[in-house]
Amino acid sequence: MVNSSMAQASQHLIRGRVLSFISEPQDSGDSRSYDYYEDGAVLVEGGLIKAMGDYAAIAAQAMPGIPQTDHRPYLIMPGFIDAHIHFPQSQVIASYAAELLDWLNDYTFIEEQKYADEQFGEHIAERFIDELLRHGTTTVAAYGSVHPQSVDAFFRASERRAMRNIAGKVMMDRNAPAALCDTAQSSYDDTKALIARWHGKGRLDYAITPRFAITSTPAQLEAAQALVREYPDCYVQTHLSENHAEIEFTCSLYPDAPDYTGIYEHYGLLGEKTLLGHCIHLSGREVRILAESRSVAVFCPTSNLFLGSGLFDRDGLRDAGVRIAVATDIGGGTSWSMLRTLDEGYKVLQLRGQRLNPLASFYMMTLGNARALSMEDKIGTLQAGTEADIVVLNSRATAAMRLRMDAGSNLAQELFLLQTLGDDRAVVQTYVAGKAVKSA
Ligand code: GUN
Ligand code: ZN
Predict the structure, then answer these.
(1) Banded pLDDT at 440 (limits 50, 70, 90)
(2) What pLDDT digit, counting tens, does each position of 173-194 carry?
């Protein structure tokens, strides 16, 4: 039994304008899709959310004398979730390249070799997490390098900050520098050992991570398939259909496959826990297979624009029943910020003739991505019983934002302004498991 002084010691009341989504907003006036409390509060106890609602009601439930943080008039939301990011590309961001395959060969495959050095990996893992938290991101699905020690470094750093994160070592045994290649057997053995060390440990989960079909032999994709069969509750993450030259090369390597998606289908890599980065140039058959397998297509707008890869067809995929997530894809992506990412996402969809309403954007960065990761019972919402990962946002963080806010706004307009003009300067505080963690 928890005695009352222990409960009091671990309780904390966070006050502000509280916003948490319940369902996917259908339009910018869909007020049934979220809970919103103008003078709201979140009561945190032992790293979990104990209650959310009107301040007066929540304060009445709290133990007397507990610490309170008053963030009024800022918005309090669930921490942002990034469904596809490469931790060893923290120093690749902003590299001048023509397109995907050049960028991989000229920068990424050079940089990732540094992660053979575990101490270097530790150093960058800490900086990587600092950046995430400064930008209000509290959960990521991350790729490591080919070196298992890079993933150990990442998980250790995540554990030190009590973050809920997913990661995996990339499996790659061809079409890359020798120093970055494992083998089908070593990738299987290393992945198995990492799963044993980290999967389900605290807030950490493992993703079986064949980088993409170009850098895996059929034997390695068979090894990945064996891992998926042995560990069906692990995630799977890879890249799919990002760029025309990539697709052409991929299909030449797997001539018997009907298409790119058919390769992953053949090796049993699709399913509810599979996260597929990009998914831009897909045929009708491929879209159908993604929908039927319940796989997740991950929209990476800043990366798709930066590398000139193409325009994601959100409406087409959604209408076909494909589950969708959104992500930065650092270092192909150009911003750590989910606000900047959704701003670019909005523009990509404008070019497609599609509209992304501002409520839907903030749903996607929070509950939408939590659902894509099958984690909506844990993160992406401020519902009681979920984990207290929280971001606090200031819609007047810069002079330009203040100028625009002075013209007046309702909630949807304010969110759109945060997305269009906001970045890490708009993030006042980030809480992980109830603890304030934003560094200056
Ligand atoms: N395809 C295979 N590897 C990568 C990567 O690191 N980044 C992107 N954007 N695409 C990839
Ligand atoms: Zn990627």
Answers:
(1) low
(2) 999 999 999 999 999 999 999 9
- The Cα–Cα gap between 21 and 24 comes to 8
In angstroms, rounded to a whole number, what is the distance separating the alpha carbons of residues 57 and 289?
48
DSSP state of 409: -
What are the CB-based long-range contacts (under 8 Å, 24+) for 216-220?
Answer: 216/171, 216/172, 216/173, 216/174, 217/173, 217/174, 217/184, 218/254, 219/173, 219/184, 220/171, 220/172, 220/173, 220/174, 220/183, 220/184, 220/187
Name the DSSP letter for residue 176.
S
- Residue 280 corresponds to which tokens in the numbers above? 């831009």
Which residue stretches of 269-410 are H helix? 284-293, 301-306, 314-319, 338-351, 358-363, 369-372, 399-405
Report whether residue 306 contacts ligand 1, using a CB cutoff of 6 Å: no
Residue 257 near residue 212, CB atoms below 8 Å: no
For residue 248, give the H/E element and its range.
helix 244-253
Q: Burial of 255 by CB count in 10 Å (0-12 exposed, 13-18 middle, 19+ buried)?
A: exposed
Ligand 1 pocket, 108 CB below 6 A?
yes
Expressed in angstroms and rounded, the spacing between residue 301 Cα and the centre of ligand 1 is 13
Side-chain half-sphere exposure of 293, counting CA atoms within 13 A: 24
Nearest Cα to Cα of residue 345 among 331, 317, 364:
364
Whether the Cβ atoms of residue 373 and residue 274 lie closer than 8 Å to each other: no
CB of 239 within 6 A of ligand 1: the answer is: yes
Determine which residue's CA is closest to atom 7 belonging to ligand 1.
332
- Phi-psi region at 278: left, alpha or beta (left = phi > 0; alpha = psi -120 to 50): left
Ligand nearest to the CA of 327: 2
Which among 381, 373, 328 is positioned nearest to 94, based on CA atoms?
Answer: 328
Q: Could you read off the pLDDT of 51-69 as tens digits, one per residue?
A: 999 999 999 999 999 999 9
Ligand 1 mean position to 299 CA, how many Å? 13
398 burial via Cβ count (<10 Å: 0-12, 13-18, 19+): middle
- Contact in structure between 54 and 37 (CB atoms under 8 Å): yes
Adjacent-strand bridge partners of 76: 18, 392
Q: How far is the CA of 254 from the centre of ligand 1 (A)?
A: 19
**Mean pLDDT value across the chain:** 96
pLDDT tens digits for 249-298? 999 999 999 999 999 999 999 999 999 999 999 999 999 999 999 999 99
Q: Is the Cβ atom of 37 under 6 angstroms away from ligand 1? A: no
User: Which structure tokens are listed for 159?
Assistant: 């554990």
Sign of CA dihedral 317, 322, 325, 327: negative
